[in-house]
Amino acid sequence: MAQMAFEPDKVGTVTVNGKVYSFRRVHWHAPSEHTINGEKHPLELQMVHAAADGSLAVIAILYKYGAPDSFYFQLKRKLAELAADGCSFGEENAQVALGLVHLRSLQKRTGSYFRYAGSLTAPPCTEDVIWSVVGKIRQISQEQVALITALLPAGGARPTQPLNGRTVQFYNPPNSTISFKV
């Protein structure tokens, strides 16, 4: 799995239902693991957060093809270095020091999001994870997706799962932006 990991308690936090979760890592899946109205997207970014008690909250951002995304400009050279490493992803870990990465461009707030309690999408598939899927689908260039997917194992996305009685709530505060049909 291609991921960027961060030192605990050094990057930021998110509060969900009164509990504070510290940002730990980001990773990608292609195509997206989440769907909106049954539609998959070429890429999904997942930002994993952990609370002091070990519980997890994940924020997912879906991407469609379009204009380049500013967050990925700062990763371009490092992603190319990792892809050139030649290791067998899934069997070995390749690492590259990224240096300073500005995450602010990921914080383009839309206000709207979907929330449900689910599980991690990769082993060990831990249950009781709080998922928040951002309601605005971002744009990313095909070149940027290609740089990321070069690092992902084939079949790097879990198929869409049945709800199994789970409730998905949609939060859409006034003046929020969404990019799908409601």
Automatic annotation (TrEMBL):
<dbReference type="InterPro" id="IPR023561">
    <property type="entry name" value="Carbonic_anhydrase_a-class"/>
</dbReference>
<dbReference type="GO" id="GO:0006730">
    <property type="term" value="P:one-carbon metabolic process"/>
</dbReference>
<dbReference type="InterPro" id="IPR001148">
    <property type="entry name" value="CA_dom"/>
</dbReference>
<dbReference type="InterPro" id="IPR041891">
    <property type="entry name" value="Alpha_CA_prokaryot-like"/>
</dbReference>
<feature type="domain" description="Alpha-carbonic anhydrase">
    <location>
        <begin position="1"/>
        <end position="172"/>
    </location>
</feature>
<dbReference type="Pfam" id="PF00194">
    <property type="entry name" value="Carb_anhydrase"/>
</dbReference>
<dbReference type="GO" id="GO:0008270">
    <property type="term" value="F:zinc ion binding"/>
</dbReference>
<dbReference type="InterPro" id="IPR036398">
    <property type="entry name" value="CA_dom_sf"/>
</dbReference>
<dbReference type="GO" id="GO:0004089">
    <property type="term" value="F:carbonate dehydratase activity"/>
</dbReference>
<protein>
    <recommendedName>
        <fullName>Alpha-carbonic anhydrase domain-containing protein</fullName>
    </recommendedName>
</protein>
